[in-house]
């Protein structure tokens, strides 16, 4: 079955860095699109970044230039390098996998989240 396990969250001061990891299993990682979302208390979950199976990356405007998404197909892991962190980056960060068992029809799966706190 599909499993997504995030790690790497923590508490840092503004201007600091963190690297989130999302280890996966149970699906064809190299044929799936991966993404990071975040949810702050009292707010809707929002898109942060994604990387397609072809390696195309996308970023929310709020993190562009500060965050970098990458993946290691051999380790079936996706990363989010977060630099120059701001207090407004404080949120629970979730990893998402979008699988395409049927061409053109995607199914999304979520991890349990990892907390990032910037003070």
Give the topology.
Elements: E1 3-7, E2 10-12, E3 18-25, E4 33-39, E5 46-51, E6 57-59, E7 67-72, E8 77-82, E9 91-102, E10 105-110, E11 114-118
Parallel strand pairs: 2-11
Antiparallel strand pairs: 1-3, 3-8, 4-5, 4-9, 5-6, 7-8, 9-10, 9-11
Question: What's the short version?
Answer:
The chain has strands at residues 3-7, 10-12, 18-25, 33-39, 46-51, 57-59, 67-72, 77-82, 91-102, 105-110, 114-118.
SS-derived structural category: mainly beta
Major β-sheet, in short?
A: 7 strands, mixed
Mean pLDDT: 96
List low-confidence stretches.
Answer: none
N-end to C-end Cα span = 37 Å
Q: β content, as a range?
A: over 45%
Query: What's the β-strand tally?
Result: 11
**Element order: H for helix, E for strand:** EEEEEEEEEEE
Q: How many individual helices?
A: 0
Assembly context of the chains:
single chain
Taking all Cα atoms into account, the compactness measure Rg is 14 Å
Shape: globular
Helix content: under 10%
Provide keyphrases for this structure.
mainly beta; 119 residues; 7-stranded mixed β-sheet
How is this structure best described in words?
This protein has 119 residues and is mainly beta. It is 0% helix and 56% strand. The protein is built from no helices and eleven strands. The protein has strands at residues 3-7, 10-12, 18-25, 33-39, 46-51, 57-59, 67-72, 77-82, 91-102, 105-110, 114-118. The strands form two sheets. Strands 2, 4, 5, 6, 9, 10 and 11 form a seven-stranded mixed sheet that branches. Strands 1-3-8-7 form a four-stranded antiparallel sheet, with no helix packed on it. The radius of gyration is 14 Å and the shape is globular.
């Amino acid at each position: 079955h599909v499993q997504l396990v995030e790690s790497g969250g923590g508490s840092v001061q503004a201007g600091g860095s963190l690297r989130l990891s999302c280890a996966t299993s149970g699906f064809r990682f190299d044929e799936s699109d991966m993404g990071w979302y975040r949810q702050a208390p009292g707010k809707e979950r929002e898109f942060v970044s994604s990387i397609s199976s072809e390696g195309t990356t996308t970023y929310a405007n709020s993190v562009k230039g500060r965050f970098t998404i990458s993946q290691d197909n051999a380790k079936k892991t996706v990363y989010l390098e977060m630099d120059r962190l701001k207090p407004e980056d404080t949120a629970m960060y979730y990893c998402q996998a979008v699988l395409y068992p049927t061409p053109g029809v995607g199914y999304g799966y979520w991890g349990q989240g990892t907390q990032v706190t910037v003070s």
